Amino acid sequence: MLLLLPADPLDPRRVDEHFRAEGIAAREAGCLVGLVDHDALAAGRPDEAIVRLPEGDDDVVYRGWMLRSEDYRQLEERLAARGRHLRTSATAYRTAHELPGWFAALAPVTPESLWTHGPDLDELEDRCRALGPGPAVLRDYTKSLKHHWDEAAYIPDVADIPVARRVAGRFVELRGEDLVGGLVVRRFERFVSAEARTWWVDGECRLITAHPDTPEMMPPPPDLTDVAPRVAALGLPFVTVDMVLREDGAWRVVELGDGQVSDRPSSTAPEALVAVLRRPGGVVQGGGA
Fold it and tell me: Where does the record place the ATP-grasp domain (predicted)?
């Protein structure tokens, strides 16, 4: 495996500090480590993006900052031109990274959701009416603004169209050029546990950790009975699925994401993540540091 990590913006010869421990763990496990300039990719300069690409392994896994699907495809093309291939194709990345790609497969185990095809508030009104009365959470295809809960995330009742438009307008304003796709309204459900982040390789759950926002709050192991066949059916090589316990005792999917751009909680050792990426068998609980 070749682990492709972001270069440090201040010293492009080194791995970005946030991912440096994973780079060390990968090298100690006998993996190759390459470097990519994330800023060049995000700025539309893909020809400048590949900083270091060691000769050898063709199984390339990116671990880094979130990329737009279009930028990831540019990375895929530049690597292919040099005879290297990402384990996760650009098509698979988009499926995992953007909610419309995975929602249908997980619909029975995740909150009801409807979305627009852009930041159009009139179209959002139609989706609110279709969802029906009640509270909802707003996001775009890849991200919510839960740290701006009252002003740009939570809609107390989608039937109150002026309030829904106000929340959505603020969301669009705050996301700015970072907004991806359209606006998503998700039925609000009341949760009673910390989130668990489950890590899946080739359709199998290989690691269960805390969520990076609450690294010291490890919930009980989630029940994957209903989730596992649905994740496997997506056929994605490396994803995370964040799960949480609803007040009625049901485990619910908060989000599925591409594992390459999913943050590792500080309470999980980098060696644990590298180990499952190398595809040995068995499920690791916690992967404590």
Answer: 131-277
- Strand, coil or helix: 225: coil
Range 199-236 burial, b when 16+ CB lie within 10 A, else e: bbbeeebbbbbbbbeebeebbeebebeebbebbeebeb
- The answer to whether 204 touches 232, Cβ cutoff 8 Å, is yes
Q: How many Å apart are CA 45 and CA 55, to the nearest integer? A: 23
- Cα separation, 88 vs 31, in Å, equals 17
Q: 96-105+191-285 adopts what CATH topology?
A: D-amino Acid Aminotransferase; Chain A, domain 1 (3.30.470)
For residue range 177-200, list pLDDT tens digits in order. Answer: 999 999 999 999 999 999 999 999
Dihedral of CA 254/260/264/268: which sign? Answer: positive
Domain ranges of the chain: 2-87, 96-105+191-285, 112-187
Give the Cα separation of 281 and 204 in Å (integer).
9
Q: What is the CATH number of domain 112-187?
A: 3.30.1490
